[in-house]
Amino acid sequence: MKGKIEELEAALQNCEMRIEFLEANKEQWKGQLHHSQDQVRSRDYIMGEAVTQIREVANYLQSLATKSMDKRLEKLEQMQRDMQEQMQSQMQEQLAKIQQEMKEQMMESQRDMMNQLSQFLVGRMDKGKCPMDNVGENNENPQYPPGFILTHVQTQPVINLQKPSVTIRPQ
Predict the structure, then answer these.
(1) The whole model's pTM is what?
(2) How confident is the model at residue 75 (pLDDT cuts 50, 70, 90)?
(3) Mean of the per-residue pLDDT values for the chain?
(4) How many domains, the chain?
(5) Mind listing the pLDDT tens digit for each residue in 133-154?
(6) What average pLDDT score do residues 18-39 get?
C-alpha cells in the first residue's frame, strides 16, 4: 500500500511538472501567435499596396492609350504577339515531347504486358492445365458423370492489341 502511495505521489509530481511546463510554453505560444498575426497583417498591408500599384499601372496604361500613343502601343502589341508566339511554340514543343514520352512508355508497357502474357501462357501450357482431359477418347472412365453440364467454365478472352492513334493539330 505504501509503495502504491509513493507511485501515485511520483505520478502526481510528474503531472504537476508537466502542467508547469505546459503553462510556461503557453506564454511562448501566445507570443508566437501574436508574432504570426503581426506578420499576416504586414503581408495583408503589402498585398494591399501591391493591388494599389497594379491599379495605378492599369490606369497609367489606359491614359497612354487615350493620349494617342499609337507607336508605343503598336510596339507593345507586337512584343506581346511575339511573346505569345514564342510561348505557343515552346508549349507545342513540350507537348510533343510529353506525347512522345507517353507513347514510348505506353509501348514499353505494352511490350512488358505482352511478355508477361506470353510467359503466363507458356507457363500454363508447360503445366498441362486444361479444363477437360481427352473428351470423347476415354468412354470407360469419364472425367464427369453422364449428363453433367459445366456451368462455370470461363473462356479465355481474345486480346486484340492495336497501336493507339494520335492526332496532333496545331492551334
Answers:
(1) 0.30
(2) confident
(3) 80
(4) 2
(5) 444 444 555 566 666 666 665 5
(6) 87
Tell which of 22, 45, 67 closes a domain.
67
What are the CA-CA distances from residue 74 to residues 63, 69, 71, 78, 140 (Å)?
15, 9, 5, 6, 98
Where in the sequence is the domain holding 107, given as residue range(s)?
Answer: 70-124
Would residue 171 count as lying in a domain? no
Amino acid at 152: H
**Assigned domain for 156 exists:** no
Q: Domain for residue 10, yes or no? A: yes
Are residues 49 and 61 both part of a single domain?
Answer: yes
